[in-house]
Design goal:
The complex is a heterodimer of chains A (about 140) and B (about 80). By secondary structure, chain A is α/β, with parallel strands linked by helices. Chain A has 5 helices and 5 strands. Chain A starts with a strand and ends in a 22-residue tail after the last helix. Classes of the chains: A alpha/beta (about 140), B alpha+beta (about 80). At the A-B interface, strand 1 and helix 3 of A face helix 2, strand 3 and strand 5 of B.
Amino acid sequence: MSECACNSGVKLIYSCSGNADVGEISDRAARALRREGFGQGSCIAGIGAGIPGYIQSAKGADVNITIDGCPVACARKILENIGITPVSYIVTEMGFKKGSTHVTPEAIETVYNNVKEGKTGEQKPVIKGGGCGCGGSC
Amino acid sequence: MHKIEILGMGCAKCNKLEELAKQAADELGIQYEIVKVKDMDKIMNYGVMITPALVVDGVVKVAGKLPPYEEVKKMVKG
């Protein structure tokens, strides 16, 4: 649902929703955060597709939060491409390994809590370039 | 004829944005119709997550903030 900007502090949450296990966790944690009212969900695909409504909403938000599964950080980069620096969270920096993580309620809760508590985890450089799919281990 | 849409539920910022858009369109001397859109489904179909938003001829120009008048003028101009 759209939110009125008369309420200050509008937070938009994006997940990479990638195909890997950690992408699924990012997606489910973002949905849980939205349901609990921590922020409002928005669509990173809409921004990547250049849909003006999503782009202008991101520009109008007080805070944009990205939850990426791995350090390729696609969601974060999509926002950076339109000139926005989001608060970035990366699931693999929270103790999960891409390709060998079970998508459990506990894993989702861990990411949910880290975002809610503002724990950005160990900050590693974001991988530049195409992304080989290794999840940051090469 | 340009179509100017103000998306939002009718808050103070929505009303102010409508006022600025009208003023800009009048000053520019363009032919326009202005429509207030409160239907949430229509708002969401534009991909707008924060209101108020200004849409000119089907393109979202701004969302979630009230731009200065000069910017609104540029947006209305297209």
